[in-house]
Amino acid sequence: MIYLILSLIIILIIVIIQITANTALKKVCNPKVRSWEETREIERAYKEWNNYDELKKEDLNFTLDDGYLINGTFIKAPKESNKYIILTHGFRYSRLGGVKYIDIFRERNFNIYLYDLRNHGMNEPGGIITMGEEEHKDLIQIIDKMYQKFGDDIILGLHGESLGAFSSIMASSYREDKIKFVIEDCGYSYTRDELIYQLKRQMKMPVAFYNLVSKKAKRKYNLHFDEMDLKPLLKKTAIPMLFFHGKNDTFTPPRMAEELYNAHNGIKKICLIDGAEHAQSVVTDFQLYKDNVNDFFDEIGL
Predict the structure, then answer these.
(1) What strands lie across the sheet with 58-59, from one edge to the other?
(2) Domain range annotation of the chain
(3) φ and ψ at 86, to 5 degrees?
């Protein structure tokens, strides 16, 4: 009888572990994404929204190689310019997350492109989020399409926030000849470390539990979290990069910005913002953020 009870307990524990792992994987790959309306209300509450509603904008959508339609917004520079920047938003958000940055780039006379990540914003839902493993491939195609649309002589840079920051660095490593700079804001340095951090923070799970989630992700979605490490890529790139991170970020720890900065061997600058939480650096200290961007552009001649 005792053996039967022990067997049932073991089976129950295994079932609980499997259910918990499936729940964790769903939070990563199939989370509830914020609606377009919700992101709009969040962003409009910031003073950095400014006159966005009155700006002259146009839809600029791209159909990717697999037929997926990416919805985006293009904002022309105040004066004729060959400088362009792509803004990539974060996890579970929309392109409107980029609005709080646009005045900084318009003052430097950049043409601005904001787009919704796959399965976000106004794009068709239903797929999975891959923590940058597939999102960066979409961004590579968008980079190529920007050159096709606006010409080979454009100066193109990237700005990414969180998941968008990871994707921007990853994409730039495959288009080093086309990307003049990257501004990285509150991204993670290594998918494995970010997920371990989140499992500990949100679910109080040990490192060993991550291994089960990772195996499920690979088996179910063919994802490779253990291979998604930006640091080796940064050691080989010469693209100038500016790193931002909020010191109070509890979603992606600030040490990850320092890891990225230390790994990069090219022109680089880092700014850690006091009191800023995740993706809040520019609204916490707009002037400091702007000054660092301007100093960075002055240094690289833009």
Answers:
(1) 58-59, 72-75, 111-115, 83-88, 155-161, 179-185, 241-246, 268-273
(2) 1-30+207-226, 33-190+228-300
(3) -100, 125
- Going through the chain in order, the beta strands assigned E by DSSP cover 58-59, 62-63, 69-70, 72-75, 83-88, 111-115, 155-161, 179-185, 241-246, 268-273
Q: Is 207 helix (H, G, I), strand (E, B) or coil?
A: helix
Would you give the distance in Å from CA 170 to the centre of its chain? 10
Tell me the three state secondary structure of residue 232: helix
pLDDT in tens, 52-78: 999 999 999 999 999 999 999 999 999
| Furthest-apart CA atoms within the chain: distance in Å | 83
Superfamily classification of domain 33-190+228-300: Alpha/Beta hydrolase fold, catalytic domain (3.40.50.1820)
Provide the whole-model pTM.
0.94
Structure confidence by residue, pLDDT tens digits, 260-295: 999 999 999 999 999 999 999 999 999 999 999 999
Residue type, 31: P
**Cα of 258 vs its chain's centroid, Å:** 17
**Exposure string (b/e) for 113-150, b if CB count within 10 Å is 16 or more?**
bbbbbbbbbbbeeeebbbbbbbbbbbbbbbbeebeeee
